[in-house]
Fold these 4 entries.
Entry 1:
Amino acid sequence: MSGVLDPVPLPPGGPPVFPDPRRFDEEGLVAFGGGLEPLRVLTAYRHGIFPWYEEGLPPLWWSPDPRCVLRRESLHMSRSLLRTVRRGGFELSWNRAFRQVVAACGEERGDGTWILPEMVAAYGALHDLGAAHSLEVWCDGELVGGIYGVQVGGLFAAESKFHRRTDMSKVALAAAVHSLDRAGIRLFDVQFRTDHLGRMGAEEIGRDDYLRELERAVSVDVDLTGLVPELPLRS
């Protein structure tokens, strides 16, 4: 590919500036280094870039092509998930247990975790600033599922979700897509397509299209402070 750049090093303590993601290859590694201070992380999301790396590496900053988004009108709920929703027996909340949700998402799995202690601290700082949010699912007072992500204007970048009972991460995702769209979020970003996300209606779009949508979305002022999460009752 002509004119493709190599990943750019970011000096520790340097300004929160990123290169144009369009100048990089489809894998999308645009930069490495720097830190996870709130202004840098929010600047990254505002420009279609997110941090993702493993223990022992410097922060790696990505903007892959294609990107994956999930739209309310495309959200698909299977028959079994709809039965779970209609059966009820759970409660939804918003920003009640942000750090618990992040911690649960970062619990060690068989393939490891990218939610390192410095990531937990970084997203906790964003939450304290009102720029990161969580949706929780409770059964009998126990946290059984949840999702968290970063908000910049009308963008919500979903980072991770978890479940401790069957279907509860799907409940959290469906409630987040439905509720945030109703609240004014214009772009619900899930980064990469997986089979699970595809079955729920996520679609891949080219990076250029994503960045154009993103530019419009982040220009919108959306207040999620008093959001009351709810679920669609049909697919």
Entry 2:
Amino acid sequence: MSIAKTSEISASSSKSFEDAIRKGIKRFSKTIKRVEGAWIKEQKVVVTDDEVSEFRVTMKVTFILDD
């Protein structure tokens, strides 16, 4: 039997929401192993001088606990 846990994280990118998601998962995976999936809870943008300057995501990442 496996036990999973979920952690909420935030990540950002100047390129896109997809890039922010990839960066967040990559960074999270450096510390936590056995990442299984993520649910995107929220997406936001930062606007500077009438232009989107940053894409931000909040996500819940699920990972399997070691035995």
Entry 3:
Amino acid sequence: MYQYAASLTKLIEQFARLPGIGPKTAQRLAFYVLNMPRLQVEEFAKVLVEVKETVKTCPACCNLTDVVPCRLCGDESRDRSLICVVEDAQDVIAIERTREFKGLYHVLQGTISPMEGKGPDDLRIRELLQRLRNEEIAELIIATNPDVEGETTAFYLAKLFKPMGIKITRIAHGLPVGGELEYADTATLTRAMSGRREMNI
């Protein structure tokens, strides 16, 4: 049976490790890279290393950033009494596209998922608790995805923070159940944010 050169096979295997990339797409990407000019390949490799070296977690909101604090936390024009809790960095970008939310964010970097062995201690909840203790927060908006893991995480956070006397709201479900913020259109996200409701536990 015919086999590709060892280095090409390795490249195909690396692409196949990426989420949403199947064997055929991995093969197509590998051949595309192989046909790229050498300088372009070197630039591509350089950017991959650079992103690993320069992108860090903001110590305040746990979002991905290359400056400390991140640009959103450092923006004095934002409403510092509002914190929107999201699952990951892509969700911050999705909400920012609506141009409706003017508060700050907190990125959990995941959700509670017993199936994947992820519990509350695996998320950035400790950092959020610290913020709520140290800053004057009027409202905590929970904007996790409307799937089982997102709902479980939202309920856990509401139960944990409600005794602190902070208003806790959940974004309205203009989003489909099982959907993800990252793929929602701007109008849907705008409606979901403006129609958020207080969580009762």
Entry 4:
Amino acid sequence: MKRTLHGLGPRLLFYSHDTYGLGHFRRTLAIADAIARRCPSVSMLCATGSPRSHSFPMPSNFDVVKLPSSTKDEQGEYTARSLDISFDRLVEMRSRLLLETARAYRPDLVLVDHSPAGMAGELRPMLEAVRRDLPAAALWLGLRDVIDEPSRVRDEWTRGRLFPLVSEVYHRIFVYGVEKVYDLPREYGWPASLRSRLTFTGFVHDGGPRSTPREVRRQLGLKRRPLVAVTVGGGGDGDRLLRSLAQALRRDPRPQFDCVVLTGPLLSESKRGRLEARLHRTKGVQTLAFHEDVPALFAAADLVVSMGGYNSVVEILAFARRGLVAPRTFPRLEQSVRANRLAELGWIESLPDDAPEPEELRARIERALASAAARPGLLSEHLDGAERMAAEVEKALLSPQPFPSAPMAAAGAPR
């Protein structure tokens, strides 16, 4: 085993800010699970604001530091999710927790998901402390395939001085996507010094089905009719698509297909109750807050209807026969950019946004079910991002080479 900063087994610290949904934490779990299988001697700790961080099975040698949760209001602004405190005070609390966690845990490697400075800059004190007090520690940044539309990203990263921060702090940058789908450094105008540290890993997902399609259908009491699975990810922002779906299904109370609707654990009880009331007379429709084996459900379905979040789309690409994606367009265009690029490649079908007209949604579902065309299969190399990250961690923490030196001097603004 490689000698570490503290003389014990290697330690990895994840940061997953998780404000609005479950996507960042689920991606982190997928990577942690692959690391646990490949590198069982590595201890892993994740600092996360996810309100549902303990709703998922945890990998071995993995634990969680729960940060007070935040969310976004109707204007897309961050706010405290549960506590009656100002957002500034929430950020201060989280920042102190992050700093003390790093000081006590003394990680050999820090892997930050998506947000280089953390939510509202909360991560900066911790990053400074790791660089100062643990100079041999590796600092890595992991980014999803699409952050947002390019002009907005360039503006936010320039105003927030994120290009200099990434250049000064992070030894390596990983993009959890495929270059031919979305060339992140080119789209966002990254300086050459940052591009040289960047690696595309392929898409990250949390493993294959644990059940067969036949077992899923039996568990749900389904027979041989076509099956449409609908998902809105965590559910916190899925109400628009669910309302369109309810209206589309109510036009014919006896549809020629079965439908399983995953509302997500973050959909409010009041909204879930209204959805169920709208659908209670529609034959063949089931609503579930959560399904323990989403890949198996997708594999059992003839069509998956989804919003355009990273995890949902990647699971469609990995397991589903067909996908129809209705991307959210507020407060970011990330989902729309992703859906459009994948539709151009023929890997999914897409709708303009997450509030399609009921008639259009119903027609697109029926057209997709009637189509005999199968989407082009993805090469496995596009879907093994978690395994590739585990291999990188193994190389960094368990090989005899020394930890990386400090990054180069700060890069300038994007071109």
